[in-house]
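Re: [help] complex structure
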Amino acid sequence: MKPARLHAPGFDLKLTLESGQVFNWHTHDDGFVGLIADRPARIEQRDDWLFIEGVTPETVVHHFALDHPMAEILDSFPEDEAMRAATAACPGLRIMRQPMWECLGTFITSSMKQVPHIRKMSAAVRELWGVGVDSPWRPLFSYPTPDKLASASEADLRACGLGFRAPNLLGTARMISEGSVKLDQLASLSDDEARAELCKLPGVGEKVANCVLLFSCERMAAVPIDVWIGRVLREKYFVRKRKVTASRLRDFADSYFGPYAGYAQQFLFHHARTTARKKCRDNVRINTSPLPHVH
DNA sequence: CTCCAGGTTCCGG
DNA sequence: CCGGAACATGGA
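Output below.
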């Protein structure tokens, strides 16, 4: 496929790929390499232009949701200080359109893990049971199908470092494989119905279900509430309130942020994480600075 | 060595 | 309904 160029003003490839919604892209020189629908792709951004190899620009537009109405989305957010700071910090961040099964599988393994760990576990699962895809840039592996994964053993998955998540991923793969939950039927359900259906799967609770709805089902109102978002909501919207329960947070998130609440969540999430990392670096600097000697 | 990480599930008030 | 605890693993 011929290399192509795509004008993508207001889009930030690096920010989008490193915002914790997707775990299977690799840096390659000044660009990124990964699979889109099992086709190897290399994308590099220079200013407002994307340089694309391996797939069509149309594929990139769809996968990275370059067609999302960002002006309308930003306009729909509530006006408060936390949202203003978060949106200002995240220009160009898009919520991608991921394949459902892969999104579900990786987020099942995400519980109590940091992003780099999730990437590592996911890579191990791909390399053991996925299909190797020829790529000019680096070896790539598709995410194994439910059928393929269903044939693995729990011990196999534990060997990938999944720990207690192994039986969850395995059990979910088996249920999808048997057809007791049908992912391709979710589209016809309401948000609540689809969420309930996903929650039938082992290892899938509200948070993971909402990740799947938001990142792979175009349900822009779905708000995954993890520890980070929980912290942000408590600090910014429940100031000095005692004992804000999880269901209270969920009700608030569902009613306050509007039709694109999932986008609001992703901006708040990324902003919280980046400012926390900065704070962490500052602390390290302070702690490692030489102590004054007292004689 | 200790602490905690994009949670879920089960159990006892 | 709500709070606690167990659940593996690895990196800081």
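Residues 285-295 of chain A have pLDDT under 50 and may be disordered.
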